Amino acid sequence: MSIETQADQPESPTNRPDSTHRMKEWFSRPYVRRILIIFIALNIIIIPIAWLVIHFLELSGGPASSIMEEIETTIFVFTLVSAPLMAATAAVLIYSLFGWGLIKSEEPPMQESPAIRTNAVAVVGWITATSLLAAFLVIWGLVELATITADSYGSTPSSQQPNATKPIDINVTGQQWVWTFEYPDQQRIQSDILVVPINTPLYFNVTSKDVIHSFWVVEMGVKIDANPGAVTNTGFTANKLGTFNIRCAELCGMHHAYMETKVQVVTQAQFDSWIREQGGKRTA
Amino acid sequence: MNSVHLLPEITIVSGGIHCRVVMRSTKWRGGVKRLLFTIAIVLVGAGIVAGSVWFLMGQQAEPATLRAKVSGTAVTPQGNLPHATLDLSIYPNSTANNPGPTGGMYDFVDKLGWPFYSPSTSLQLPAHSLVTVTVRQYDSSTTVWNPYFAKVHGTVDGTVKYNGVAKTQIDPADVAHTFTIHQYPQSTQPYFFVSVPMLAVGNNAKSLANGYPKPEVMEFSFITGAPGNYVWNCEDPCGNGYVDFGGVMSERGMMSGKVKVV
Amino acid sequence: MSQTAVIHEQKAVPQPKQHGKPGGFLYRANIFTGLIGGIGAAVITYAIGDKLVPWGTQNADFSQVGLNALVFCTFAAWVIGFMVGIGAFAGPIRWALGHDLTHVDAEYMAGKGQGRMKYWKYTTDHKVVGIQYLIMALVLFGFGGFFAMLIRTELGATWREVFDPNFYNSLIGTHGIVMIIAMIIVVAGPLGNFIMPLMIGARDMAFPRLNALSFWLLFAAVPPLVLNLVMGGIRDGWTAYQPLGTQAPIGMIGYQVCIITFAFSTGIAGVNLITTIVTMRARGMTWARTPIFIIGTLAAAIMGLIWFPMFQYAQVLAASDKVLGTSFFIPQQGGSVWLYENLFWLLGHPEVYVIVVPATAGILELMVVFLRKPLFSYKLAVAGFAGVVGISAVVWVHHMYMTGFAPAAGYPFMLSTELISIPFGFLVLVMLGTMWRGKAWNRLPMMAVYAVIIDKIIGGITGVYLSDVPVDQYMHGSMFVVAHFHYMLMGAGLFAAMGVIAYWFPKMTGRMFDERIGKIGFWTAFLAFQVTFLSMFVAGLQGMPRRVLQFDNAFEISNWISTIGAYCIGIGMLIFLYALITSWRGGKIAPANPWGANTLEWQTETPVPLANFPVLPVVTSDPYNYGVPDPYLKVQEQLDQDDNETVGAR
Amino acid sequence: MSAQTSPALYPTTGEPVEVNARRNRLGVWLCIVSDATGVVALLIAYVYLWSLNVNNGWAPPKNHWAVDWPFWAIVTGTILGTICMWWGVKAIAKGHTGRLMVGALLSSLIILVAFIAQIVQLSTFPFGPTDGAYASATFWLAIATAIHLSLLTFLTTAIVGRTRAGRITPDNHSHARLVAMWMTYVCVAALLGAVFTTVMKESPNQNAPTFGTFRE
Predict the structure, then answer these.
(1) Within chain D, which residues score under 70 in pLDDT?
(2) B147: which of B56, B77, C23, C565 lies 20 to 30 Å off by Cα?
(3) In this complex, do C13 and D11 lie within 8 Å of one another by their Cβ atoms?
(4) Segments forming the whole domain that contains residue B93
């Protein structure tokens, strides 16, 4: 919110008054008060949207990995942070429509509005506010990015992982229009659906046999493009039993819409038996 | 030497102008007429959209649905199920007496002599039953990119009878096409994945009367679950364009289609 | 309007010797000769090529070089033949021979005394070009909106495939690129050409013939693009990612020829706009007195000029992959798909601002008039545009967070992407500050302002999610992205364009815009827009990928809502279009300055004479000197005095 | 700017010629910026593919790299032509119309030769356009130079034509100067192409994973 001082009006530094009474006077203006009321009311309306967003997000089954949880938190926080800005803008908008009012006339209205050229306080205040907001978002984002990069082993292949968290390597091949998964440590057995043990780190090498696909494990919040001629990496640790979706998130031709499969998160025992019936035996 | 007089340079001294414009206040003349016109133009737009949708649905040029014939019951690992059979053929190219799919893009691709499944690519299978598919394959081989598709997946006991011999996989170099049913993005229907590599005819196979070589015969069975919609396509690069997945590989009615389990 | 005029004596300007009869081919060329030339050249090329080129020739990288080359040459022949036929090359050749245009020729080419025919010719008058651009934009919007209706029909019919999957993919691609082109030209084309020279008090654009060239290149670029639908289609979205484009049939070539030609058109228009704005402002119009719309146009022109060649060359190389069989984007032979994505998005992101910035500037321009208030903090607005131009060059990688081409790049580009929200914040403050304590004149253009601000809020907040890498890891390639950029491009771009066009409509057509029907259409479209895309946000949050034609039952409800909303948008737009056409044909005759605005374009009479101003104006103040002294200042000065007295008393 | 003060008026618009010249100069500068972005795009493509060496597909078959000297010969030709043009421009600024004639004629001939040389080089590369990434990138750098040179042949010939027709006079010679400016830019573009193709041959990344495999 801005304070009405005229910037281009010269004020001699000697008897410059402290602007508290200007502040008081400003807050005493009726329109300022009404706008503040609208602003607060709007906040009360808008802030619950944060929960609504999370609700919609969880319609797809809710987070099944630490990464997805991080993402949910981020979305929630961002919504909360940007709510006041939204409310402030909307408050001015609403008051301009209904408070200061509209003129209905066929010809240009001649009564003129106050000639406010600029306002140092408003400009400086706004720039500071938005910059602080942006700074917060950037810092939060960078920290989150570092976290999920760590969670998804994005930077370190399994060979360099400490043994405790040594992830299972899985090679993901995208091809028009099916995914195939290969378990190099388990006699290179192959499968068309992804079966993974719970609470075990997984490390994916993703590539494509033809065009660009995008390997999206929805409920795990993991997505990486499958590029022809290059190997990209991602990973996650599933922390929820069940069956979740894998979709292709990059247009890849005719059956792009049908290029999807399942990820089954099972217990270690079930995983071992599955490996065995696929004709491999659990190593390491 | 001709010459012209151009507009002279004139100097105006003009400040910010506040001109008051007086305009006659207008009444809404012919309001009803304009309203009717408005509705008319909206209706015309809707008509255009609806018409083109109807037209394009007709242009899909998908062959008529081929229904599996149900005949008696069969003993399966899941007990006695109705037994349905389906006969398909794969031709290397269209000929005069075997035109293959026509209309739409097909007339255009005909010039290129491309392989196609026959008689149809949109299949309808009975639910909860054993489906036995017999494929006569007349085409020669193109090496499959992904060896995974040289293996048999999702059939009963995981085998396919190649000319009567049951195998679980064939040499990737011998694959002519594959018949790969995969998921339709519906979480409410059972997951369904069948992939069968089709054996290629030898290069020195002598051709029969119909101009095609002697076919390889594949016979395989799988068990369908609850009703649902699926798609299938060939995973062996037999088209053209980049990595041979263009052209015929990306055409419904040639190397891909729909599977409807009812 | 007080004015004292000093007439200088007129001096005869020596004219070059007239070569042969006046004009020659330049006088006869028009669109029909153009069409004859273009179609003729295309047909001949195809006929000859079809004999030479064996169909389906396969080469090392499996691309159908023969056929592709044939189609490419055919389209190129269409473009060149059309430009020859319409007389685009007559000027350069005459220049090379030293047969310069006489003043008479120039005036004839500017459409002097040709009636309506001048709209069908290679006319250099900026007013004619502006009208041509407007019509072109409307036609493109017609196409794009029609495709949008088809897409929503497919997505609404969740129980079956309405279209063939390939056709559906081509449909989304064509809708995308047609709408992008339309959005790029809709403000910078009609208004940048028609209004801008008037606004800065110039007689015409700096390079009138380049002006005509840029429009007719655009005209020649569109048919190849739309033809792709009957030639196998684009099949890989408007981004035309390779190598899927190399796999697609010949329709792809139409897209590439269109983009290459359109990039020329944009570059030429950019050169023209920038030169005009920088060198041809009226006497006394210092930068501080330049209307904000001019600044916005300048910013957009600069971005387009600098970055469009990236997109153009991405398509040139992609076309050469198909036609010559090179391997820029074919990994088996050392090409890289990331190279394409980088080249594409190097334009791809600034281009979003090429669309949004002029629309926003236009909105600022008309707010001032309808609120009868000076623009709040002109300097801040300029700083905002400058910041956008600067930062837009270094944000392209946020479209490639998930490509994995450089995982570490996420950190710096997240920073730059969040930074660009600050200059955009400037513009929002300028809008709010201009609204502050103003009584708005309730006309359609002013309503557009409110609509745009609402959309900007929603689009901006959702943009904050997407700029964040972790969140983008979930959102990328989902319907959420689609909804977001529709809020930015359509919500903040198209609705702004509608308001801005309604504002300058009287000056361009000499008729008043019929606001009764226009408002019905506008608000229908606006509310339906909210319904459509808010529910599309939901689909995205649920995890629906974009560019699919069948999807999980979980997304059905939100898609049904979106489809209904989309149909209503179509209805609203049709109503608005009807209002536009009827008021163009039979609207009330507009006075010279219906809004009582201060900017120069309203000071000349309507319809605008060929030379724009009978006398070139001289600007003595900035165009925003509306308003009366702030009454509250009295109160505050009183307070200050009391304060000083108390200080003195102490 | 009243009518008396302007020594020479531009026939078509009646504005003083220096006004026109200033405008055109800015226009040419902007054209140069736009065209330079395109050249930069080609160089980006060259360096990108060179550094990645995807699927070991950068090097041409049997390491038949393009010969260096033709690039430099063509660059030298372009520079020579540009110098001639500048010489003529400087001359006409002093009022010698004849020298501009000579300079433009020379430069157009030299440029034509360079253009032909470029075509010859394109047709005699030891590889075809389909032979891997290096071939593609080099071909397009050469094609870009060829396009630039073909444009220059037109422009330089046009200057000859205009001088003959008496359109380029000592007090209205801006067009010749603009063409010279553009030629200077073309020299830089061609030079960059030559430098890149000469310096970057063997790719730095010699152990790229083979296509479709998972080797790190």
Answers:
(1) 1-7, 215-216
(2) B77
(3) yes
(4) 63-261
Give the one of C18, C102, C553 whose C-beta lies nearest to B188's C-beta.
C553
Q: Does residue B194 fall inside a structural domain?
A: yes
Contacts of A22 (CB under 8 A, 6+ apart): A3, A5, C636, C639
**Domains identified in chain C and CATH numbers:** 22-122 (no CATH), 123-611 (1.20.210.10)
D13, closest residue in chain B (CA to CA): B6
- Non-local (6+) Cβ contacts of A209 within 8 A are A173, A174, A175, A176, A228, B145, B146, B243, D212
Q: Cβ–Cβ of C570/B45 closer than 8 Å?
A: yes
Q: Is C392 on the interface with D (CB under 8 A)?
A: no
Q: Do C439 and A116 touch (CB under 8 A)?
A: no
- pLDDT reported for residue D32: 96
Number of domains in chain B: 1
Phi, psi for A78 (deg, rounded to 5):
-60, -40
φ/ψ (deg, to 5) at A136? -60, -50
Least confident of A40-54, B200-214, C500-514: B200-214
C275 and D48 within 8 Å at the Cβ level: the answer is no
Assigned domain for B54 exists? no
Give the mean pLDDT of chain C.
88
Q: What is the pLDDT of residues C173-196, one digit of tens each?
A: 999 999 999 999 999 999 999 999
Beta carbon pairs, A and D, within 8 Å: 22
Residue B23 and residue C85: Cα distance in Å, rounded?
46
Number of CB pairs < 8 Å for C and D? 175
User: C457 at the A interface (CB within 8 A)?
Assistant: yes
- Residue position matching structure tokens 């009474």: A21
Decide if C328 and D44 are in contact by the 8 Å CB cutoff.
no
Nearest CA in chain B to C252: B241
Mutation for C interface: D6, D39, D130, D172, most C CBs within 10 A? D130
User: How much is the pTM?
Assistant: 0.91
| pLDDT above 90 for A118 | no
Check CB contact under 8 Å for B8 and D3: yes
Q: Which pLDDT does position A284 carry in this prediction?
A: 38
Cis? peptide before C350, omega within 30° of 0: no
Residue C138's CB: how many other CB atoms inside 10 A? 16
pLDDT at D6: 42
Give A-chain residues touching C446 at CB under 8 angstroms: 102
Q: DSSP per residue over D93-155, as a string? A: HTT-HHHHHHHHHHHHHHHHHHHHHHHHHHHT-SS-TTSHHHHHHHHHHHHHHHHHHHHHHHH
For CA atoms D170, D175, D181, D184, the dihedral sign is negative
Q: CA C296 to CA C602: how far, in whole Å?
A: 19
Q: Is residue B7 domain-resident? A: no
Which partners does chain D have (≥3 C-beta pairs < 8 Å)? A, B, C
Determine whether the interchain pair D214/A171 forms a contact, defined as Cβ–Cβ distance below 8 Å. Answer: yes
Instruction: Decide if pLDDT at C507 tops 60.
Output: yes
CB contact A93 to C (< 8 Å):
yes
Q: Is C470 in Cβ contact with A117 (below 8 Å)?
A: no
Q: Which residue pairs from C643-648 have beta carbons closer than 8 angstroms and sit at least 24 positions apart in sequence?
A: C643/A17, C643/A21, C644/A15, C644/A17, C647/A15, C647/A17
Q: Can you say how many angstroms the Cα of residue A273 is from the centroid of all Cα atoms in its chain?
A: 38
Q: Residue B224 falls within a domain, yes or no?
A: yes
CATH number of the domain residue B122 falls in: 2.60.40
Please, which chains are in contact with C (at least 3 CB pairs closer than 8 A)? Answer: A, B, D
Query: For C337-363, what is the mean pLDDT?
Result: 93
Which domains can be identified in chain A, with CATH numbers? 20-103+119-151 (no CATH), 158-277 (2.60.40.420)
Q: What is the band of C645 on the pLDDT scale with cuts at 50, 70, 90?
A: low
Nearest CB among D12, D37, D44 relative to C307 is that of: D37
The domain D10-199: what is its CATH number?
1.20.120.80
